[in-house]
């Protein structure tokens, strides 16, 4: 079985897809092989999984501030998200 080397763009799409559904074995291996060689994609995948886990574990922290009429996150919510990302919680 020959492996196809994926581009960084391909890997970013597949990593995003993998958060919603399990990738076929061949694609998982190709993403893994690319990430072994590309520290940028490895870091991107790690950060994306961290954000996904934070959202799944703490969905209540992402609720918009009711006082905000434009639907944007409050400064407090934005700081909590930054803290979670920095600390890896």
Keywords:
single chain; 89 residues; mainly alpha; 2 domains; 0% strand; elongated
Polypeptide structure, described:
This protein has 89 residues and is mainly α. Helices cover 63% and strands 0% of the residues. α1 runs parallel beside α3 and α2 packs across α3. The longest helix has 19 residues. 7% of the residues are buried.
Summarize the entry for a quick read.
The protein has helices at residues 8-18, 25-37, 39-57, 75-87. It is mainly alpha-helical and 89 residues long.
Number of separate domains:
2
What Rg, in angstroms, do the CA atoms define?
Answer: 17 Å
The proportion of residues forming helix, as a percent range, comes to: 55-70%
Element-level helix/strand string: HHHH
| SS content category | mainly alpha
How would you classify the quaternary structure? single chain
Note the gap between the termini: 39 Å
Question: Averaged pLDDT, please?
Answer: 84
Query: Would you report the number of β strands?
Result: 0
The percent range for strand residues is under 5%
Outline:
elongated
Largest sheet entry = none
Low-confidence segments, given as residue ranges, are none
State the helix count: 4
Strands, helices and their partners?
Elements: H1 8-18, H2 25-37, H3 39-57, H4 75-87
